[in-house]
């Protein structure tokens, strides 16, 4: 067990990550998992968590934290009247189904595979963040079913495997089909709810009885980390919502894209370095 001073530093690092994750939840309509998963991966490693379960635990714990963060972010956006409720209704089955499929996949793949999936999707997200242009459009409105429904399943699967709320993926989908960015951000907070709740229960099931999990873990959810970070993210998520409706996003998107690039290469290095 590391000395108490090191544990305090880890706790402070988690708390700082919680602040950033909460603001991002409101600002980008994401659950903050893109920040939390790599931080958890590092902290759980320093605490001696078995490599075989470390990435799974990071992803599952991130999704558990996203539940209240996404709910609060969604309610804040909903009160502003900019959420696309029709799209969320259309995805009431599709997105949760994708999230559940992700937990089934996670139950049978290795930590290395899960890290590779995170790194590849993170690079794709980074490309979109850094090079995104308002002129990038595929159509004048969202596609009809079954395409739209299948996109919901895909967002659920990819987000569930990464431990994220699906905000960046849904923002990309909606803006490519000419929806306003503020509507995309607001709707993404609802997508986060549809992903995180089934994802939480799925990762409990996927990790049930696994060896090497740290104390106070239920499956691939560590409740110490959840209890530490949730109050912070709930407190600061409305700050991100206010920022999303009050400022330009280009520099923040580019900065987030650079961060995701660094995280992706960190995971690639852990696999092939």
TrEMBL record:
The keyword Nucleotide-binding does not apply. It is found in: Cell membrane; Membrane. One of its GO terms (cellular component) is plasma membrane. Keywords: Cell membrane, Membrane, Transmembrane, Transmembrane helix. This is Probable membrane transporter protein. It comes from the Bacteria. Signal peptide: none annotated. InterPro entries: TM_pro_TauE-like (IPR002781). The lineage of its organism: Bacteria, Pseudomonadati, Pseudomonadota, Alphaproteobacteria, Hyphomicrobiales. It is a multi-pass membrane protein. Belongs to the 4-toluene sulfonate uptake permease (TSUP) (TC 2.A.102) family. It comes from Sinorhizobium sojae CCBAU 05684. The keyword ATP-binding does not apply. The chain crosses the membrane at residues 12-41, 91-109, 116-135, 147-169, 190-208, 220-242, 254-272. It holds the Pfam family TauE. Its main location: membrane.
